[in-house]
Specification:
Blueprint (H helix, E strand, L loop, with lengths): L13 E5 L7 E7 L2 E10 L13 E8 L11 H4 L4 H15 L4 H4 L3 E10 L4 H23 L11 E9 L2 E4 L3 H4 L4 E8 L4 E8 L6 H26 L1
Parallel strand pairs: 4-5
Antiparallel strand pairs: 1-2, 2-3, 3-5, 6-7, 6-8, 8-9
Helix pairs in contact: 2-4, 4-6
Length: 237
């Protein structure tokens, strides 16, 4: 029995509330169990220098955790004067994941920055950020379409992410912090709504895991992403 009482293939309750900030072109608050992330998408009529005069747009992301998002207060990274390696790795993952759903020609020479701020953490913050980040991106693109700034929809598919792991010998979906901290194997799967793989991050803690076990995790991830995409659709339609 999982600590939460969930079945092995069950997500935590997922709620996505849109339009939660006044100024951003797209925003949502995503809650995956006790992990809560505020996602905002901001449109700028410029691109990084390496894309100037190419006609290509860009989607990037920034990620951060509020000081008391966890059980103990963490010092703000601004106070330390630099981002941690973990923060840099996660925000690059979010950016790569979201760009997998974007036709950058159709977007035009502009940048959309998706900010993911973790309000409360209970495992799976990067996955919640990707899933909620796509919703914010979708809403920002809708704003551009409505204003006539772009002529065709640059979003080609949904993108969502979920964690899976092997806990006390059992493959399970969507790990909370208690399970994540005790997992023998854990992995994050980023997938499109049509089932394409964007990225897989997986590692064993101590003992290795087999191909058969990986296939079990992959099957669970497909179930989870399907349900997350359904939640995204409910939020934006």
């Amino acid at each position: 029995m999982r600590p939460s009482g969930r079945a092995a293939d069950a997500l935590r309750p997922v709620f996505i509330e849109t339009g939660v900030t006044k100024h951003a072109e797209g925003s949502c608050l995503i809650r995956c169990g006790d992990t809560h992330v505020l996602c905002t998408a901001s449109v700028e009529e410029r691109v990084p220098p390496f894309l100037r005069n190419t006609g290509l747009g860009w989607v990037t992301a920034e990620y951060g955790m509020l000081p008391r998002a966890t059980t103990t207060r963490n010092r703000r990274e601004a106070q330390a004067g630099k981002q941690s390696g973990r923060t840099q790795e996660i925000q690059r993952l979010i950016g790569r994941s979201l760009r997998a759903s974007v036709d950058r020609v159709a977007l035009g020479e502009r940048q959309i920055t998706v900010d993911c701020d973790v309000i409360q953490a209970d495992g799976g913050t990067r996955c919640a950020s990707i899933t909620g980040g796509w919703v914010a991106l979708r809403l920002a693109v809708n704003t551009l379409l409505k204003a006539g700034e772009i002529k065709s929809d640059p979003l080609t598919d949904h993108v969502a992410a979920v964690s899976c792991g092997i806990v006390t010998g059992t493959p399970v979906l969507d790990l909370d912090y208690t399970e994540d901290s005790n997992a023998g194997t854990d992995a994050n799967f980023v997938m499109t709504g049509s089932g394409g793989l964007v990225e897989i991050q997986g590692s064993a803690e101590g003992a290795t895991f087999s191909r058969a076990e990986f296939d079990q995790l992959m099957n669970l991830a497909e179930i989870g992403v399907r349900d997350l995409v359904a939640a995204q659709k409910d939020a934006v339609e």
